[in-house]
Amino acid sequence: MIYTLTPCKSDSFPVCYNITLNPDDEILKAHFPGRTIVPGAALIQMAADAVSKHLNHAITIESLHNVKFLKPLTPEHNGAELHIKATLDGGKAVAVIASGDVKFATITFRFK
Q1: Helix, strand counts (H, E) of the chain
Q2: Around Cβ 49, how many Cβ atoms within 10 Å?
């Protein structure tokens, strides 16, 4: 698994998980050798997995809206400061993957 999510607390966001990257994962090693970055698809999956964990059931992304990859996320950003926080509004989620004030991605999606 390229990452694991563990619950965290946030006063502003109902969905909050710390992200731990697995630098030995084959996907990370292959994307890109010598300059490893987490694939955009993995960032989107992190957002979906965080919402699924929060709701305690599997979700399916129906559509993506306003997805922005703001900075490359690398294994060097690993640790307790790396997190995903999201708000939910019915079947819509707005997720932010960040470390402190540094945002790596914002992902808005509809799910069922």
Answers
A1: 2, 6
A2: 19
The answer to whether 75 and 37 are in contact (CB under 8 A) is no
Cα(110)–Cα(91) distance, rounded to whole angstroms? 6
Give which of 106, 7, 110, 105 is closest to 50, Cα–Cα: 7
Q: Give, rounded to a whole angstrom, the gap between the first and last alpha carbons of the chain.
A: 24
Residue 98 in tokens: 């960040």
Q: What angle do CA 75, 62, 37 make, to 5 degrees?
A: 15
Compute the distance between CA of residue 105 and CA of residue 96 in angstroms, rounded to an integer.
Answer: 6
The verdict on pTM exceeding 0.85 is: yes
| Phi-psi sector, 56: left (phi>0), alpha (psi -120 to 50), beta | left
Task: List the chain pLDDT tens, one digit each, 112 residues.
Answer: 899 999 999 999 999 999 999 989 999 989 988 899 999 999 999 999 999 999 999 999 999 999 999 999 998 887 768 999 999 999 999 999 999 999 999 999 999 9
